[in-house]
Design brief:
Strand content: 5-15%
CATH superfamily of the largest domain: Glucose-6-phosphate isomerase like protein, domain 1
Shape: globular
Structural class: alpha/beta
CATH architecture of the largest domain: 3-Layer(aba) Sandwich
Length: 358
């Protein structure tokens, strides 16, 4: 173990036993198995859709369900011939009608906003597919005769990302919008099994531990290219908040070079609290690569530091999930460094209770 690790704190498996009371680490380390199981569920679910009717796709969900939609939109952008929107709201866009494929996703089946959206897509006679572990959404979809990918319950929704993403891919495949994603999912399953060994607590020196020490005590800024990896940056931001109880922010290139970059002004004492993380992929647009390099020249003199991580794997799906898995592990190590249990989400639960009481 390096001197910096010793100074900052213990990131061993034993350290997790002190803080990780609900077993979040075990869930993340089984991500590879979850992807495989999600694929089995998706392949075993009968879904009949009319491709000729589909003019657009509306993915309705919140939290992890919506992130799954963002990831699929990124993964499939080069294949899709119809527009896809991810809807995080009580209401759905005005264009939703009988020409829409609506994929309604709620892990619990009881997400308030998603149930409202489900009611509306039904009223507008869209073709509907649901992804849920049960709850009200499962009951209503059953009554309405809508196909449902039934996924296992009992997970914190953010740790069920594989279950929320893979069936969505297959829904678009069954609709005739995507090629069979099975080879890409299979590669991701194998790759994440390898990364378990590299990023897990038993590996004293690994990238996830190094990056968590780099970010500890800072405000992380997660930057990525918009075309493929921006949804991963959003996932990192959410995981740092929910697992490690850290504020983090994200943005994407090239957009941030047209506005946010000007925030790096004269207040250098404040700017030193930020740590920049670049999430990079080998297919980033050449001009974006140039912008990222030039922007780094602005960030480095002012931010605490700039750290780059690159995707791993061959297929885009595997590369995306390599970055997701790294971010999940970083958030768990930061939870240990911050002395917090990575599972409870007290502010979110309090919000839900108070809304029910109002």
């Amino acid at each position: 173990m390096s001197e910096i690790t010793k100074a900052a704190g213990d990131l061993s498996l034993q350290a997790f036993s002190t803080y990780d009371k609900s077993g979040m680490l075990e869930r993340v380390l089984r991500f590879s198995e979850q992807l495989r199981h999600a694929q089995e569920i998706a392949q075993g679910t009968e879904v009949r859709l009319e491709r000729s009717r589909i003019r657009n796709v509306c993915i309705c969900g919140m939290g992890g369900s919506a992130i799954g939609g963002d990831l699929v939109r990124s993964f499939s952008a080069d294949q899709l011939s119809v527009p896809v929107v991810v809807n995080r709201d009580y209401t759905v866009p005005n264009f939703v009608d009988e020409g829409t494929l609506a994929v309604v996703s709620s892990y619990s089946g009881n997400t308030e906003e998603t149930l409202s959206a489900y009611e509306q897509v039904c009223q507008r006679r869209a073709q509907v597919v649901c992804i849920t572990s049960g709850g009200t959404l499962g009951e209503q979809a059953g009554r309405n005769g809508h196909p449902v990918f039934v996924i296992p319950g009992g997970f914190p929704p953010r740790s069920a990302l594989g279950y929320l993403t893979v069936p969505l891919l297959y829904a678009l495949h069954y609709a005739g919008l995507l090629v069979d994603p099975s080879p890409q999912v299979a590669e991701a399953v194998s790759l994440l099994a390898e990364l378990n060994e590299e990023y897990g607590p038993d590996a004293e020196a690994n990238l996830a531990k190094e990056l968590s020490l780099h970010l500890h005590g800072s405000v992380p800024l997660i930057y990525a290219a918009a075309a493929r990896v921006d949804a991963v940056a959003l996932r990192w931001k959410g995981q740092l908040a929910e697992n490690a109880e850290m504020l983090a922010f994200c943005n994407s290139f090239p957009e941030l070079t047209h506005n946010e970059i000007m925030g790096w002004g004269p207040n250098r004492e404040v700017n030193q609290r930020f740590r920049v993380v670049y999430l990079k992929d080998r297919q980033d647009h050449p001009q974006v690569v140039k912008r990222m390099a030039l922007a780094r020249e602005v960030f480095e003199p002012q931010a605490g530091s700039v750290f780059e991580v690159r995707s791993r794997g061959e297929s885009l799906f595997a590369r995306i999930f390599s970055l997701i898995f790294l971010g999940d592990m970083v958030s768990l190590y930061l939870a240990v460094l911050n002395g917090v249990d990575p599972t409870p989400v007290k502010h979110i639960e309090s919000m839900k209770r108070r809304l029910l009481q109002s």
